Amino acid sequence: MPEGDTVFLAGKRMHDALAGKTLTRGELRHPRFAALDLAGLDVLRVRTYGKHMFTHFSDGNSLRSHFRMDGAWHLYRPGERWRRPGHQARAVFEVADRQAIGFALHDLEFVPTERENELIAHLGPDLLAEDFDAAEAVRRLTADPSRPIGIALLDQRVMAGVGNLYRAEVCFLLRVLPTAPVSSVDAERAVALSRKLLQANQWRPEQSTTGDLRVQHYVFERTGRPCLRCGTRVRSDEIESRFVYFCPKCQSD
């Protein structure tokens, strides 16, 4: 599943490509929106919140899209070949000089812009928001002290933006196993690390938690490879059907 920084960067690129321009083509390829034609509308703004993207239109409505596991927005020049098959396209937006194609977007909502926040009201603070509320994120994280930290970090109701990659790396940097209870963790540091790692990568497609793009991650997807800190083989396991990665020596309960 894309992390919050991936969605943030996609949103910024979409905003730069479309904002202030008129759609010459605006299709939503979903049965619920079969009769909806957005051509002729101006794109006012594209913003993101956690893993949600909102595209604002001049008719007072917004399109909410969520990437889930395999969704993505691609930008193309006119006539450029798409990098994914056409049958995966769920949204096709064109302006004079760009195409924006939304592939495999399972969650689409078209709502009045004034009501779009209702769709994300259940979420915790957005880790990449300028006005990020760290105290509220800590409060939500510690609300269930017995909950495994690896589960709590992925819960978008706690704070919005952490995915499996940052879950693994934050636990490593905290030196705790993903199964450790929240009560055993420095919650303020967990929140600060989550925000710091996402901010470090929000303006680039590469995601490095080590500070080195040659070896980008400490444990994420490094099963069987040596830990960068101690040399012990990195291990992986499953929590609630999601893989977790950890160093059995550096991380402990």
UniProtKB/TrEMBL annotation:
Coiled coil: none annotated. It holds the Pfam family Fapy_DNA_glyco. Residues 2-102 form the Formamidopyrimidine-DNA glycosylase catalytic domain. Keywords: DNA damage, DNA repair, DNA-binding, Endonuclease, Glycosidase, Hydrolase, Lyase, Metal-binding, Multifunctional enzyme, Nuclease, Zinc, Zinc-finger. One of its GO terms (molecular function) is oxidized pyrimidine nucleobase lesion DNA N-glycosylase activity. The keyword rRNA processing does not apply. InterPro entries: FPG_cat, FPG_N, H2TH_FPG, Nei2_N, Ribosomal_uS13-like_H2TH, Znf_DNA_glyclase/AP_lyase, Znf_FPG/IleRS. Its cofactor is Zn(2+). It comes from the Bacteria. One of its GO terms (biological process) is base-excision repair. Signal peptide: none annotated. Gene3D superfamilies: 1.10.8.50, MutM-like, N-terminal. The keyword DNA repair applies. PROSITE patterns: FPG_CAT, ZF_FPG_2. Residues 218-252 form the FPG-type domain. Its EC number is 4.2.99.18. Belongs to the FPG family. This is DNA-(apurinic or apyrimidinic site) lyase. It comes from Lentzea fradiae.
